[in-house]
Design brief:
Blueprint: H1 7-14, H2 27-30, H3 61-67, H4 69-77, H5 99-110
Helix pairs in contact: 4-5
The chain binds heme C.
Length: about 110
């Protein structure tokens, strides 16, 4: 039988709301044709698909709330402002994600456990 399960479908299946933490991972975080943030970032245990990605720092609720929404948004819209040599794509400046998708990611990250 042919296997048709794509990575995105697999990731989406894992992104069911966690009873304990109730954090639904936005599609733009996991989908390869969107942010694909999980290629570089780990989330706290129990949130979203497990990954060993470590190109970017692990994203934790404590760190995100210390950064604050404005800094999180800036990091997603145009990380080259803070670090011109960063490998993280400028999702807003290059219009990879739209304003609503970025807003959703900001709220998701700010609410991480
Ligand atoms: C190609 C790898 C890569 C991808 C893909 C990527 N990032 Fe990053 N990200 C990084 C790196 C590396 C940093 C560290 C900042 C730097 O390079 O100056 C970072 C930093 C961040 C920070 C700041 C973290 C902190 O503790 O200061 C946030 C927030 C963030 N990324 C969110 C995201 C989101 C949301 C996505 C998807 C829309 C994403 N990243 C996709 C590599 C990546």
């Amino acid at each position: 039988m042919k296997r048709t399960t794509s990575f995105a479908a697999f990731a989406a299946a894992l992104a069911v709301p966690c009873a304990a933490q109730n954090a639904v991972v936005p599609e733009s975080f996991t989908a390869q044709d969107k942010g694909y943030c999980i290629a570089c970032h780990r989330l706290p245990d129990g949130v979203g698909p497990a990954t060993r990605a470590d190109l970017g720092p692990p994203l934790t609720g404590e760190r995100m709330r210390a950064l604050g929404r404005a800094k999180i948004r800036e990091a997603i819209e145009d990380p080259t402002k803070a670090n011109p040599a960063t490998v993280m794509p400028p999702y807003g400046r290059h219009r990879i994600l739209d304003a609503a998708e970025i807003q959703r990611l900001v709220e998701f990250l700010h609410a991480l456990p």
